[in-house]
Specification:
Strand content: 5-15%
CATH superfamily: Aspartate Aminotransferase, domain 1
Strand order of the largest sheet: 1-2-4-3
Shape: globular
CATH topology: Aspartate Aminotransferase, domain 1
Number of domains: 1
CATH class: Alpha Beta
Helix content: 40-55%
Length: 119
């Protein structure tokens, strides 16, 4: 496996772990019956995916989260109506940047879900 492909797999696996940890945290804080705000729709198998992970949001969440990510300088690929694709690129993204994405994403989700509850 080339060094670039190896880093690609590691970055994407790390991103998947970060996202799954956010989902687990959501389940633990709201109860197992609460619908999570997103789910990963890209296959988990490394052999069945490339660098990117597609995330499907509950209705009404994606655009608000996308705007918050963009305000923080995070660029993702939007697929309307409710999907973003997150692609850590091994030639220029770092593990720290994936971690930072997770922090920003978590805050954006919390803010958006909280805003929706108060509407």
């Amino acid at each position: 496996m080339s060094v670039i492909r190896q880093k690609s797999v590691q970055l994407t696996n790390y991103l998947e772990t970060v996202l799954n940890n956010l989902l687990a945290s959501h389940s633990n804080s709201t109860g197992l019956d609460a619908t999570p705000p997103f789910k990963i729709i890209t296959p988990s198998s490394v052999d069945d995916r490339g660098t990117q992970l597609s995330v499907l949001f509950r209705e009404g969440i994606m655009l608000k989260v996308l705007k918050r990510l963009e305000r923080e300088g995070i660029i993702v690929d939007e697929r309307k109506p409710d999907v973003i694709r997150i692609a850590p690129v091994p030639l220029y993204n770092t593990f720290e940047e994936v971690w930072r994405f997770g922090q920003v994403f978590e805050k954006a989700l919390k803010d958006v879900v909280s805003d929706i509850k108060t509407e």
